[in-house]
Every structure is written in C-alpha cells, then in structure tokens.
Specification:
Blueprint lengths: L1 H5 L15 E6 L4 H19 L5 E6 H13 L5 E2 L5 H7 L20 E5 L1 E2 L10 H5 L3 E2 L2 H13 L4 E5 L16 H8 L7 E4 L10 H8 L3 E6 L7 H7 L5 H14 L4 E8 L6 H14 L3 E6 L17 H24 L5 E10 L2 E5 L10 E5 L10 E9 L3 E6 L1
Parallel strand pairs: 1-2, 2-3, 4-7, 7-8, 8-9, 9-10, 10-11, 14-16
Antiparallel strand pairs: 5-6, 12-13, 12-15, 13-14, 15-16
Helix pairs in contact: 6-7, 7-8, 11-12
The structure holds iron/sulfur cluster.
The site of iron/sulfur cluster has 9 residues, from α5.
C-alpha cells in the first residue's frame, strides 16, 4: 500500500464504502478456516465484478502462492493471481512501479498510534503441521538498520507502540548475522524517539535467546509481554510435531521466564486434536495449562494440511472431539484469566487508549496486545481520556477478558 501511495494511487484498506474500481485481495492459506475466509472474499468480489460493480479483481498472498493453479482453474474470473514474492508484478498490473526508495514507506491499516513491524519473513523450522514454509519460504531476517529506519518513519507519523512480528522471532539474525540478534535489535529500537512500547509476538521455544529476557527486564520500553506459541506438551506429540523440545524443557523454559521477569504476561497458542492425541495426552495438556496459568491462551483445532509432513499421518481425532477438547481448554483458561484479572482490581496501570466505542474509551496495558488480549474500559459518560495517548488508570472491576477502570 505504501508503494501504491508512493506511485500516486488512491488506495484504501477494507474500503468501508466498498466502491473501489480495482480490488486486490491479500489472502491467507494457513489452515482450513483461513482458506475458507479467503475463498469467500474472492467469490464476493468476483460476483461484484460479474455484476459490473468492480472493474478488476487481483488475488495475492499465501493462498494464491499455495494453490495458484487450482484457483486459476476453479475461479477463472479473477484477473490475475500473484504469489508471496510477486509484489513488483502486482504493482505493474496496477500501473505502478516498484520503487526501492519506498521500502519502509507504509500506509498502516492499524490506528494511528500502533503498528506491526515485520522483522523477518519465512521460516526454517520443520514443524510437521505447518504449511507456512511452503508459502513463505525459508527465514530471511530484515537487517537491523532497515528496521530502525522503518521504525523511525513510523514514529514520525505518531506511532507509539511497535508490535514485532515474524513467523519466528527466535531465529532472528541467524541468517544474516550468524547469531541470534533479537536482543541487539531491541536495544536499537528502544533508541527511536517517540516509540514508547515494543511488544514481541511469535517466539519459538527451542533456542530462545535468553539475553532477550534481560532486555525485557531492563528496558522500560520493551513490554513485559511475550507471545510464544507452544502447540502441545505431550512428549510423543511434540516429537511428532518436530518441535525440538519436550514437556520438561518447555516447563523449565517457562519457569526461567517467570524467574527473570516475574510480572511478564505470557501468551501461548495450542493445537488440539493433532493426529494420535489420546485422551491421556489431552489430559496431560489440560493439567499443564492449569499448572502454568498463562496470562493469555488461544486453542485451535488441528487442521490437516496437504504437503506438510503431518499430512502422512492419519487425522484420527474426530472433529467433534477436537472441538470439545478446544472448549474444555478455553473454559479452563477463562477461569484462570478471571482469577488473574481479579488480582488487578485496585491497582494502577499505564494504558494506551485505542478508541472510543459507544459509552467507553477502550485501551490496553503493556500486558495486552490489540485484538487478542484484555481491554481496559473507561466510562466515557463520566471520564475523558484522549484516543492515541497514554493514561494512568486504576482498575475498579474485572471480568475474564475486560478490565474496568477510572483515570487518576
Ligand atoms: S515455527 Fe511457526 S511458522 Fe515455522 S514451521 Fe513452526 S509453526 Fe510454522
């Protein structure tokens, strides 16, 4: 979008009026639900094209990288499909040039005060269930100086919070610097004026760079927050998933995190119903979730993906059992989350106000990421706080996913 804008094109994200002439759909092809959503979106715009409401429809991104030939056959009314490394060609059909000087120029689609910063693309891990390396290729880190340039440009536009993402943050630097360099990157990013919060999403447990814990602890700008998808805990399943870790190593790692940064919010995601997940293996997972008391947790039913190594296994946990197990984990987590949130009542937090929604200003603490974590609600009929700015609040009450607060 930054490239299009730099080419003087009028471009909008998720056009609220839905009245553009040319539609570019950036697809996801990761798991069944994401593929379905992508295909429904393509069909929606192809129907609009057939009705004469849209001139041209282009499809890019992971689904089209993974299934280009099938899609061209099944939905031929799309003008052209592009893969994940086709940006210059996509720009060409949009009558724009790929300009090197525009790298790092962004038209952000998030609110004006936070932005995602992608620090690497692709993944070198062998996780058996995962289709991402098929679509995104091997791990390629973006150099520290390029990321600092991008962060500086974002800060100049008013961005206060950077949310660092990659398929695998843990691997950052190994390809270009021959060493894990996430801590080095963080130490440079904290120097960017205007950036006040830096948040880490998607670390891989095996080989996690422990020097990052020191940076989280010592740098006030780096949020005491870590998203580390752990997927499962049963040793047989972890082995089959090719995660390079075990029940004991994972538990020890979490204990090290808690000891180093006691108030860190740890977020994880789990895959439920992986091939061969017995009732006992699931029970082990559930007991471990109860023991670890993650601040945040998401559980997803296993999706059997072709061309992954797990595709050779039998997808032998029935869908309704997967769903029932997901529900059990989420019920347990919602109780844990409720209890952890009650501990916050009466305490003071710095919050970043994201938006006004009806009668509430909605913000987040450093322990919460947008869209997926807790929100802090401030009654807008009796209080005023500025959207996009920080406020100090006191928590007055809490549910499992929301905190109610008053500014102080
Ligand atoms: S580390 Fe993440 S992106 Fe990479 S293969 Fe494993 S699950 Fe997929």
């Amino acid at each position: 979008m930054g490239q299009l804008q730099g080419n003087n094109k009028n471009v909008v994200h998720e056009d609220p009026e839905d009245d553009g002439d040319i539609v570019v759909i950036n697809t996801c092809g990761f798991i069944g639900d994401a593929k379905e959503e992508s295909i429904n979106t393509i069909l929606h715009y192809v129907t609009k094209k057939e009705a004469g409401d849209v001139e041209r429809v282009y499809v890019s991104g992971c689904l089209s990288e993974r299934y280009k030939t099938d899609l061209e056959k099944e939905i031929p009314n799309v003008d052209e499909y592009f893969g994940t490394h086709d940006l210059p060609n996509l720009l060409k059909v949009l009558d724009a040039d790929y300009k090197h000087e525009l790298i790092g120029e962004r038209l952000t689609t998030t609110p004006t005060h936070y932005a995602y910063l992608k620090i690497a693309e692709g993944c070198d891990r062998p996780c058996s269930f995962c289709a991402i390396p098929l679509m995104r290729g091997g791990h390629v880190s973006t150099p520290i100086e390029d990321l600092v340039t991008e962060a500086t440009k974002l800060a100049k536009k008013g961005i206060k919070e950077l949310i660092l993402i990659a398929q695998d943050l843990t691997y950052y630097g190994l390809d270009i610097y021959k060493k894990r360099a996430l801590a080095d990157l963080l130490k440079e990013l904290v120097k960017v004026d205007g950036i006040e919060w830096i948040r880490l999403h998607y670390a891989f447990p095996t080989g996690f760079p422990m020097d990052v814990l020191e940076v989280i602890k010592n740098e006030p700008k780096v949020c005491n927050y870590l998203d580390i998808p752990l997927q499962h805990i049963n040793d047989d399943i972890l082995k089959s998933m090719k995660r390079g870790t075990s029940h004991k190593k994972t538990t020890d790692l979490l204990k090290t995190f808690r000891a180093a940064v006691p108030d860190m919010a740890i977020r994880t995601t789990l895959i439920i119903g992986y091939p061969g997940e017995t009732e006992a293996a699931f029970q082990e997972l559930k007991d471990w979730v109860a023991e670890m008391r993650f601040e945040r947790l998401g559980a997803f039913a296993y999706s059997h993906e072709e061309n992954t190594t797990a595709a050779d296994l039998e997808d032998n946990v029935p869908e309704e059992v997967k769903q029932e197990r997901v529900n059990q984990i989420m019920e347990l987590q919602s109780q844990i989350s409720f209890e952890l949130n009650q501990e916050k009542v009466g305490k003071e937090f710095k919050v970043l106000i994201d938006r006004k929604d009806g009668n509430y200003f909605v913000g987040r603490t450093e322990y919460d990421s947008p869209d997926v974590d807790n929100e802090v609600l401030i009654d807008a009929t009796s209080h005023y706080v500025q959207v996009g700015k920080f406020a100090i609040v006191k928590i007055t009450s809490a549910t499992e996913f929301d905190l109610y607060a008053e500014p102080i």
